[in-house]
Amino acid sequence: MTRPLSIAIDGRTVFDEPRRGIAKTTVAQYRALAEVRPAWRFRFFYAEGTQPDPFADLPNVSCERLRMKGDRFELWPRLRLPLAVALARPDLFHAAAGVAALFPGAPLVTTLNDLIPLESGRTDAAARAWVANVRRTARRARAILTPSEFTKGRIVAHLGVTPAKVHVVPWAATSPPARATPERLAEVRARFGVPPGERYVLHFGMADPRKNTAGLLAAWSLVPAEVRRGVRLVVVGLSDTGRAEVVARLAPGHGIAGGVGIFGYAAEEDVGVLLAGAEVLAYPTLYEGFGLPILDGFAAGVAVLTGRGTSLPEVAGDAALSVDAADPTALAAGLTRLLGDAEGRADFARRGAERAERFTWRRAAELTARVWEWTSGGATWGRTPWRPGGPRGPRT
Question: 174-197, pLDDT tens digit by residue?
Fold first, then answer.
């Protein structure tokens, strides 16, 4: 038995444009939490943003914009947000992006999806400030959520917290499978430069080297011409700067510009359609705290090519073709194998769809709720804290 809780959330990333990563998982997490704990109240606070309210249909979730004119000294996260949280008097304050003010205004819990700025070796001022804030937040938080055992290990190793404080709550797919009509699929294909009758490999790219877009382009040039014939590599998600760099240097440099389409951010309603129409999702990232696009590909019924490092094996299991993502030759061999073997692609797609069913937002919400209940003192079923996957956890 538990009492209803009130949770305040730093919602800035939810209203950022476009919604990616943390924003998408936070929205999915709290939509599911609102369903599994209908008596609870969830209150999001944010500063700016033009994105629509993703919780408008949920009676127990509210979103409040806190305006602050002339904030030249970044007082919104340091003062305005903690003051609003303190006045709301919630049971917990959730720093959903891993950073929080020195005095957050309520008992603190946080989510850390990864430690990329710390482990990448960056030394710029922004990275140093992020690392310092994350260290402080992790020490002060009553509980830390993270989506993978890999990231839990890095948090314990780098931030000096005990393993019992860090709870693994795996995420689920965030791009729902599209059941697109032929007309809708044709429309999206045309928008992303795929001619009628041509197949395509989809890649979610970034200028960030860890996403390995450059490595994939190098690998694409190594795929035999007869395999690439009639197949296009579609890269989406690059910023304007990153797109210009790829277009100007990488694709022509590999002699494959004619078979590669480089695009900016894809609208959320297009992502599911792009996945549904792809032959292969190429996700050869070099470092991930989880790897959501793998699950999105699985849920869409697409064969996935990915790497073997960091958290990726936890998500992919044996349902994706995993290779050494740092080796363009290995990536090229994987692409060649998948594009040339229809039965093999179908087998990976089937296994991926089955694996995706193990990862649900309802399960993630239930695990999160149990952590929040115990952390807030709202749980009444035992003397020792419940930990996801531990002996007191639910059978799921």
Answer: 887 777 788 999 999 999 999 999
